[in-house]
Design a protein that fits this description.
Blueprint: H1 2-19, E1 20-25, E2 37-42, E3 55-58, E4 66-71, E5 88-97, E6 107-111, H2 123-126, E7 136-138, E8 146-150, H3 152-159, E9 168-172, E10 178-181, E11 193-199, H4 205-224
Antiparallel strand pairs: 1-11, 2-4, 3-10, 4-9, 5-8, 5-11, 6-7, 6-9
């Protein structure tokens, strides 16, 4: 009985450590796949690129609308530090920090539907390339505050390859500018942060059986000594 209990304990401990994990992605954190693309596009200057600005703006005003784009393009793949396609996503949170320019107005988060490059994207080139369904509404009313946005369902869709990972768009709803820190902010910890909790694809049943047999064999040897 003691052998059985030890076997089950070690098996469950090993399975938990193998199949569950958390990864974070933030520009400049040293991770191989943390590269972040971020820019804002403005209607008033439709051909100007803001891909290297330290801030990200959002404003709703006729003729001079400003919208923010954020993307973590390398999070999925087969390498260490990436998440395998088909993985079950437990939670995914996008953390964005306001500067001193906050607003009481609602901001909306949308799924982007086209490829874009932070060094070239403009209002003209991007157009209205985002899905009109609001994924989350939030009010960034406090300055120098991190707002954590739940994008679990979207990241799951990326994992399932239902949609391509083309990032998200933030749109303000009032004539009052809100400013967030971008991936080019001087302070690394202020940059957009993506945190993903996930469960890796479950191995073939035979692999699990072999793992259990191996653990039992090791324990038998231990107790014989």
């Amino acid at each position: 009985m003691k052998l059985f209990r030890w076997s089950m304990f070690l098996f469950l401990l090993t399975a938990t450590s193998v199949f569950g994990a958390t990864l974070t992605f933030q520009e400049g954190d040293g991770g191989s796949y943390s590269t972040t693309d971020a820019a804002f596009i403005e209607q008033g200057f439709p051909n100007v690129n803001h891909g290297i600005d330290a801030d990200l703006w959002a404003l709703d005003q006729s003729g001079i609308n400003i919208r923010t784009l954020i993307q973590f393009s390398d999070i999925f793949g087969s390498n260490t530090g990436q998440i395998a396609y088909g993985t079950s996503i437990i939670s995914a949170t996008l953390g964005i920090r306001t500067t001193s320019n906050a607003t009481s107005g609602l901001n909306y988060l949308y799924r982007v539907t086209t490829d874009w490059n932070e060094s070239t994207v403009t209002w003209t080139s991007f157009g209205n390339s985002y899905n009109g369904t609001v994924m989350q509404a939030f009010s960034p009313s406090l300055g120098e505050t991190v707002y954590n946005l739940d994008i679990t369902s979207l990241v799951q869709d990326w994992s399932d390859q239902t949609y391509a990972n083309q990032g998200v768009l933030i749109r303000n709803t009032i004539n009052d500018v809100v400013i967030y820190y971008s991936d080019d902010a001087t302070e690394l910890s202020y940059r957009p942060l993506l945190t993903i909790n996930y469960v890796s694809p479950v191995p073939e049943p035979m692999s699990v059986v072999l793992l259990g047999i191996g653990l039992i064999g090791l324990l038998k040897r231990k107790f014989k000594k």
